[in-house]
Amino acid sequence: MKRTLCVALLLGLAAPVVAKISPAEAEKLKSELTPVGAERAGSKDGSIPKWEGGLTQPPACYPGAPARYCDPYPQDKPKFTISKANVDQYKARLTEGQKALFAKFGDSYKMNVYPTRRTAAFPDFVYEATYKNALNAELANGGESLSGAILGIPFPIPKTGNEPIWNHKLRYRGTGVDRWNIQAAVTTAGDFNLVKIREQVKFLYDTRGISPEQLNNVGIYYLQIVAAPPRLAGTITLVHETLDQVKEPRRAWQYNPGQRRLRRAPNVGYDNPGTGSDGLRTNDQTDTYNGATDRYTWKLVGKKEMYIPYNAYGLYSDKLKYKDILRKGHINQDLPRYELHRVWVVEANVKPGTTHIYKKRTFYVDEDSWQIVAVDIYDARNALWRVQESHILQIYDGGERLGHAPALETVYDLQSGRYLAQAMNNEEPQSIEKDYDVGFFDPANVSKQATK
Questions:
Q1: Would 426 be classed as within a structural domain?
Q2: SS3 per-residue string spanning 266-288
Q3: Of 339, 316, 341, whose CA–CA distance to 79 is shortest?
Q4: Which region is the signal sequence (predicted)?
Q5: Per-residue DSSP letter, 351
Q6: Residue 65: which pLDDT band, with cuts at 50, 70 and 90?
Q7: In angstroms, what CA-CA distances link 138 with 132, 149, 163, 202, 296?
Q8: Residue 266 belongs to some domain of the structure
Q9: What is the extent of the structural domain holding 110?
Q10: pLDDT (0 to 100) of residue 12
């Protein structure tokens, strides 16, 4: 009897926790929903327009790669500005974190709200893959094992809380990228030092023509090399991000120039401090959220209209210096563009029997791009502790160069009054798409390059 019960329990753990949707429901991706699952229709009052296919061609101001992306809507002016004086009028469409920023920095904090531009778009082959994923993708082992998905959004019509998080982690970003990620931990006085990080990434999951079986359980290869300041220069982090983290947890290695050895690093993940962040973010806050989801329970609260950072071409400009962006208390709020969009709201609570410095997080996921655009973060006392925002823009080169990416990410610590800005590259070369060979991310190759 006991043996039968144990077998039944094991089978239950392995069984899918998310059922495939029916063909009839998947057909909505060709009618009332966009090909990645957003509502095609605009809002009842017209403030959110109908999705018309997104921004798929470069605007006239863009001369072509390798030029930096220009603002396709230079004529747009703010519809209104939210300030301490009128914040109560708009609070129904603000996150708890945004409201807390108004309360803490009321004399300087504001949000310029622009006309909503539904620019999100992906290549046709991503749409085709997303439709197939809708019929085939499944999660098992408490949501930690993904199967039956490739290239497109895994769960365009989400039913459970961790599905939008998987959609964010595997949203289409091209085959690979070589980019600079500039971080600044800003003090209460507004002072900062820059940490310069080069990131080289291969999005294996986004490879055309590959099957799920050919991934070897890896969705993303990630190499991080710190270039400055001198005390951190030469530090390397290598990650092979697995899709079934029950079968095999994330593979990670770190290289310390003082030790001159690339070592396995199981601590690269969860709530361990992020590289060069001065303790202002955890490893799983890179790209707003990454890695395993097994320390939380995930609840899909629903969809809501909210003012979120969007079309952040102004923040991406190479006419700006970092000192133009970074201010005391918060970034220069003259620069961000906020728009009214629909977001999926997902609530994550730490599971009994496990730990994380963040007891609770509320995620706001843009329905059009599946990018997490804001997070409210709570401490062990259930007090709002930190606030994240991701200022995103559409990559509009055309063809395979379509998708959303952050121009700037922020983590505000409400308790200390400090904040972290990351993903900036205003004074660095433009990010470039690059299709790396998998062997580039082999630990032996990385170790050889590091010790040259």
A1: yes
A2: CCCCCCCECCCCCCCCEHHHCCC
A3: 339
A4: 1-19
A5: P
A6: confident
A7: 12, 8, 10, 23, 19
A8: no
A9: 80-196+274-432
A10: 42
| Overall average pLDDT of the 324-349 stretch | 98
pTM to 2 decimals? 0.95
d(CA 134, CA 18): 11
User: Amino acid letter at 444?
Assistant: A
What is the rounded distance in angstroms from the CA atom of residue 386 to the CA atom of residue 358?
Answer: 9
Tokens of 332: 């220069």
Q: Distance between terminal CA atoms of the chain?
A: 61
Query: How far are the Cα atoms of 15, 58, 252, 286, 333 from residue 380, in angstroms, in the given order?
Result: 32, 47, 28, 21, 30
Tell whether 375 is covered by a domain. yes
Q: Distance (Å, rounded) from C-alpha 221 to C-alpha 445?
A: 13
Buried b (16+ CB within 10 A) or exposed e, 370-401: bbbbbbbbbeeeeebbbbbbbbbbbbbbeebe
* Total domains, the chain: 1
Nearest to 102 by CA among 121, 89, 115: 89
Query: Quick check: is 389 in a domain?
Result: yes
122-172 tens-digit pLDDT: 999 999 999 999 999 999 999 999 999 999 999 999 999 999 999 999 999
CB 106 within 8 A of CB 85: no
β-pair partners for 197: 181, 226
- Do residues 215 and 205 lie in contact, with contact meaning Cβ atoms separated by under 8 Å? yes
Concatenating the DSSP letter of every residue in 49-103 gives PPP-S---S--TT---TTSPPPPS-TT---SEEE-TTTHHHHGGGS-HHHHHHHH
Residue 371 vs residues 288, 356, 401: alpha-carbon distances, Å: 9, 23, 17
Question: Token pair for residue 306?
Answer: 């909210």
Taking alpha carbons only, the member of 159, 164, 157 closest to residue 32 is 157
| Dist CA 222 CA 70 (whole Å) | 28
Instruction: Give me the residue label for tokens 């009618």.
Output: 31
CA 53-175-400 angle, to 5 degrees, is 30
